[in-house]
Write a structure and sequence with these properties.
about 5% strand, mainly alpha
Length: about 500
């Protein structure tokens, strides 16, 4: 009995000696991921600045749930996920600063949770490096605090793919639903390899969770297709038309031009950016392939090949199927590629026993420092350009208020959607991607509320508004419809 008791105590001491270091390493690794997410939040607040006004697309999403302006026209490609995401703040406050802080903190939490899913598939240090690489991109920092869907598709992809590999059906369902909630078509592209792999390997539970998540996230979008667009195929067709017609379009060079800080490159003309700006784009696929080679040699092919395949399919439509570019489109691909890239960098910088290779580590550290400097520089340019354009909208809105255009009111013409949001007006268009009215309807509206037509400096005015009273504002020609029963004319 004494012998048994001694054995039990000895076993307990051995267990304690093993468990404590493992627990310590676990919490230390978890804290490392939290630190990466925390620095990411801080970078957003310091470098993007909460005071930057809402952009065009943001105005559309926020107006659906906010009280600052009537809901803007919601075109076929858009989904309601972003509007629901911002509703906890936008539904009761018009403060852009508060909304930015809320989204910055939420994006940091999303990055932490997304990386946390992968624990057990990759070491904590690999996950921390992957998170840091993704969070260091100017496009990630720029869009983290913005009311836009692409960052959240990336987080959904990170959760769904990691959970799929670990067999956690609730994570698969949640990640797939988040992606489809934000952009249903992007969600399908990201999950194509998962669907194929699940069928080939007969993983029916993850497959069911994946399909269920996609369905739950997209159900509202599908219902809206039948209610507002005449059916699902009609909405997809209209979405394709707005995007210039989906088909074979080589947009690789367009995406490279957008890396210089252009939020939207349409049409995407001009010379290529400085090679220092695009260098990481050439290195990215090389390191990703190296990460796969390392994984194959180590016998962990699946956990690296699957995110790599999902990154490729996520990028395909934006590299080869549309005729324009925006750097945010590739965020889901970037976050998935960050995993094998981080594995490759650590393989190059460390020996098998975990110690650093001095020369390789120094070279990589210098390269990463240069990369970070370039990203900060591009981010500063992007923030400055975006802030300037949004301040222009604010000045035009202030001038419209001075001219008597106050809610309820209607704006149409050049950049009517964002300027209407800043003015507190509704917006209308008789043509283009956001067509939602007719000239007759606009003239009829002018009989009851203030209506203004906005013309760019080098633009033309629609025929129905040419006789309206002109006023020159900050780079925009404003034409006000005559008030009263005869407002708008014939």
């Amino acid at each position: 009995m004494a012998h048994g008791m001694n054995a039990l105590l000895a076993e307990g001491r051995r267990s304690e000696r093993v468990t404590v270091p493992i627990t310590f390493r676990y919490w230390r690794g978890d804290a490392l991921l939290a630190a990466v997410a925390g620095v990411f939040v801080l970078a957003q607040l310091l470098l993007v600045r909460p005071g930057m006004g809402l952009g065009w697309d943001e105005a559309v999403y926020v107006s659906q749930v906010g009280s600052g302006a009537p809901p803007a026209f919601f075109s076929a490609p858009r989904a309601r996920g972003v509007s629901l995401l911002v509703a906890p703040i936008a539904s009761w406050s018009t403060s852009t600063e508060l909304l930015r802080v809320y989204l910055a903190v939420l994006s940091g939490l999303g990055l932490y949770l997304g990386l946390r899913v992968w624990h057990g598939l990759f070491r904590f240090r690999v996950l921390a490096v992957a998170g840091a690489l993704f969070a260091s991109l100017w496009v990630t920092v720029f869009y983290g605090p913005q009311a836009m869907p692409n960052y959240w598709v990336a987080i959904g992809a990170l959760i769904a793919v990691g959970s799929f590999l670990k067999g956690r059906v609730w994570g698969v369902l949640a990640g797939a639903a988040l992606m489809a909630w934000m952009r249903p078509t992007d969600a399908v592209w990201v999950t194509v390899p998962l669907l194929v792999f699940a069928v080939a390997a007969r993983r029916w539970r993850p497959l069911a969770a994946l399909v269920t998540g996609l369905a739950l996230g997209a159900v509202q979008w599908i219902i809206e297709a039948y209610v507002s667009f005449g059916g699902l195929s009609e909405r997809l067709h209209e979405a394709s038309r707005i995007q210039g017609g989906l088909g074979w379009n080589m947009a690789v060079d367009d995406q490279m031009r957008s890396l210089a800080g252009r939020a939207l490159c349409r049409p995407c003309t001009g010379s290529m950016p400085n090679p220092l700006v695009t260098a990481w784009w050439y290195v990215l696929p090389v390191l990703a392939v190296l990460g796969l080679v390392v994984a194959v040699r180590a016998g962990r092919t699946e956990r690296t090949l699957v995110p790599l395949a999902c990154a490729v399919t996520a990028a395909v439509p934006y590299l080869f199927m549309i005729g324009y570019a925006a750097p945010r489109f590739l965020l889901p691909a970037y976050v998935l590629l960050a995993l094998p890239v981080a594995e490759a960098l650590l393989y190059l910088a460390t020996r098998p026993n975990g110690t650093w290779r001095p020369v390789a580590a120094t070279v990589l550290a210098v390269g990463l420092a240069l990369h970070l400097a370039v990203q900060v520089s591009v981010l500063h340019r992007a923030v400055s350009n975006s802030t300037a354009s949004r301040q222009g909208w604010e000045r035009t809105a202030a001038e419209l208020h001075r001219l008597g255009v106050r809610p309820p009111c209607l704006l149409t013409g050049h950049e009517a959607i964002p300027i209407a949001y800043y003015t507190g007006c509704s917006s209308a268009a008789t043509g283009g991607h956001n067509a939602n009215s007719t000239a007759a309807e606009i003239r009829a509206t002018a009989r009851h509320i203030p209506v203004a037509y906005l013309t760019a400096p080098d633009g033309a005015t629609a025929r129905y508004a040419r006789h309206w009273t002109p006023y020159q504002t900050d780079g925009v020609l404003v034409r006000l419809a005559p008030p009263g029963p005869d407002g708008g004319g014939k």
